[in-house]
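To start, an entry.
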Amino acid sequence: MRAAVAVVSEWLRDESVGAPTRAELATAVRTTARSLAASAPGHSVEVRVPPFVAVQCIEGPRHTRGTPPNVVETDPRTWLLLATGLVTFDDARTAGAVSASGARAPEIAHWLPIVRATTS
């Protein structure tokens, strides 16, 4: 996971350096989201980062059909900013970069950051 995040760290800090490849971005998004799911096991909150990954996390009632009641959704760059601690959940939500529905969705903030972005 750290290696995958290191590849995109410079771009996370400065968008003008050029975006990582789709494969690099996908790897960083998937590994960080799956790490969240491993650190906060459960099924009460679904984290979606289209088009790359959706994971369920945080202990609580399991949801199996239809749209879950607690969903966090964001774009890949914002997810990586959250996962690396370069932006807070509250700031991203206030800016409209994160959609969080359901009373338990904001609980993922407790599990962030997942890994710190490396400095160049």
